[in-house]
Design a protein that fits this description.
Function: Enables the bacterium to metabolize sucrose as a sole carbon source.
CATH class of the largest domain: Mainly Beta
Pfam families: Glyco_hydro_32C, Glyco_hydro_32N
CATH architecture of the largest domain: 5 Propeller
Number of strands: 31
Largest sheet: 10 strands, antiparallel
Radius of gyration: 23 Å
Catalytic activity: Hydrolysis of terminal non-reducing beta-D-fructofuranoside residues in beta-D-fructofuranosides
Organism: Paenibacillus sp. AN1007
Keywords: Carbohydrate metabolism, Cytoplasm, Glycosidase, Hydrolase
Length: 491
């Protein structure tokens, strides 16, 4: 049953007696709780926030509504890790309820300054007519994880020419100055990103809009992130209101990047190529990146989308985050690969191996099964029409990744994955890929799969909801022959 507005905008202290305990009890018996992904202790998780390194730990916060699986009163929930793999739940970092975040502490970012971690975020408020008024707020976390909110916003007003859809500040330092990119909507209801500058993180000057070649690309740009990588500029954002084009833009909302020359911070001009989607799967949104101490640019995203229902909703929780991914540039593309630390989850150093030639058949191999694992597989198509892998499978369920040699397309099919999803969520995602050798690196968990294709050239990220006994892995070729070799590490 859907919550009322009053129920959605309660704080934890306003929960009914026993309400949290009931949620926790339902979650305990849910078959889809993840093994190695960040997930909410109760309620709903969405955007990753404040991804940073501070005092020897990676810190990763996320948007959290603790009392249900709809989008209600948002907190910042705090996790930390010393290796990007094993994440510790620290607890609530930013609690809403002050005059400038009365209806939620929305998304933002983090930056270390003078031994403290500065958290800049959007404070969400609503007036008596339920009209939104956003503020860009600041909190500071010390080395003991104590968070102190500043009393007043650091950016109080929306500049002329923009609506109240003005949020998600991402901050970085360039030389001696700080810059902040914010997602915005113009008054003509088109999306864009704007730029601010500060010398101290407390006083911000509005510089203006980032000049891109996309003046009418969607009605809102959420969660923008600008960074520089391998001598090029990358503007990453999640545009809303993009129409589907063949295999592109299939999800309810999109997520991608512009790659080009370095952003001119004086003119705000950004010369770039076309918009590329970051992910080809069903469930990927609102990514955020950070610079690791060893110089890697690392990305984490929300493995979900706004305005969609998922089978875990009935169990009192919703969504998770992706595994961390290292970014690099290859030609005109941003490449994503799992961070090397993921290998620490392998139970054994040497994985279980299988190889062979498949001839119009589907085969299983001893030991190739599981619910949480890493699977590497190379498939070389001879004359097969289709070749691929069925996983999280039993007699009636399976998720399928396959290559269509004639169409030159890679296809992810979750139409028989398990618990049914609403039609709007989709069952097929595919992309063009002109090759006869497919390299797949798959990270499967209790209710998700992340597939890195040909060393990160493409990625498919998706939630799936199979039965507990759907553990089989099968390799197949249809309409001819294909060679394969695979290695499995259980987690």
């Amino acid at each position: 049953m859907k919550m009322t507005r009053e129920q959605l905008y309660r704080r934890i202290q306003q929960a009914e007696p026993g309400e949290m305990a009931k949620l926790e009890a339902k979650i305990t018996v849910c078959p889809w709780r993840q093994t190695y992904h960040i997930q909410p202790v109760t309620g709903l998780l969405n955007d990753p926030n404040g991804f940073s390194f501070y005092q020897g730990y990676y810190h990763l916060f996320y948007q959290w509504f603790p009392l249900g699986t709809e989008h209600g009163m948002k907190y910042w929930y705090h996790t930390r890790s010393d290796n990007l793999v094993d994440w510790e739940n620290v607890g609530i970092a930013i609690e809403p309820g002050s005059p400038y975040d009365s209806h939620g502490a929305y998304s933002g970012s983090a930056l270390e300054k003078e031994g403290q971690l500065y958290l800049i975020y959007t404070g969400n408020t609503r007036d008596e007519n339920w009209i939104r008024h956003p503020y860009q707020c600041l909190a500071v976390m010390d080395k003991h994880h104590k968070v102190t909110k500043y009393e007043h916003p650091v950016i109080s007003d929306v500049p002329p020419g923009y609506t109240e859809h003005f949020r998600d500040p991402k901050v970085w330092k360039h030389q001696e100055l700080y810059y902040c990119v914010i997602g915005a909507q113009r008054t003509d209801e088109t999306g864009c990103a704007v730029l601010y500058q500060s010398s101290d993180l407390l006083h911000w000057q509005f510089l203006g809009e980032i000049g891109t070649g996309l003046p009418t690309f969607g009605y809102m740009w959420e969660c923008p992130d600008y960074f520089e990588l391998d001598g090029q500029g990358v503007l990453m954002f999640s545009p809303q209101g993009i129409q589907a084009e063949e295999d592109r833009y299939q999800n309810i909302f999109q997520c991608g990047y512009l790659l080009g020359k370095l952003l001119d911070l004086e003119t705000r001009q950004f010369d770039h190529g076309g918009f590329h989607e970051l992910d080809r799967g069903f469930d990927f949104y609102a990514p955020q990146t950070m610079d690791s101490p060893d110089g890697r640019r690392i990305l984490v995203a929300w493995m979900g989308l706004p305005d969609l229902a998922y089978p875990t909703d009935d169990s009192g929780w919703a969504h998770c985050l992706t595994i961390p991914r290292q970014l690099s540039i290859q030609g005109s593309r941003v490449i994503q690969q799992p961070v090397s630390e993921m290998a620490q989850l392998r139970r054994v150093e040497k994985g279980l191996r299988a190889q062979g030639t498949l001839s119009s058949e589907c085969r299983s191999f001893a030991g190739f099964q599981g619910t949480a694992y890493e699977l590497e597989c190379e498939i070389s198509l001879d004359d097969a029409h289709f070749a691929g892998i069925e996983f999280r499978a039993n007699d009636t369920e399976k998720t399928v990744i396959q290559y269509d040699r004639l169409q030159r397309k890679l296809i992810l099919d979750r139409s028989q994955s398990g618990a049914a999803l609403p039609e709007i969520n989709g069952t097929i995602r595919q992309c063009s890929l002109d090759t006869d050798v497919i390299q797949l690196r798959m990270f499967v968990d209790s209710s998700s799969v992340e597939i890195f294709v040909n060393e990160g050239l493409e990625v498919f990220t998706s939630r799936i909801f199979p039965s507990r006994d759907s553990i089989d892995i099968r390799f197949f070729a249809h309409g001819g022959r294909a060679d394969f070799q695979a290695v499995l590490w259980n987690y």
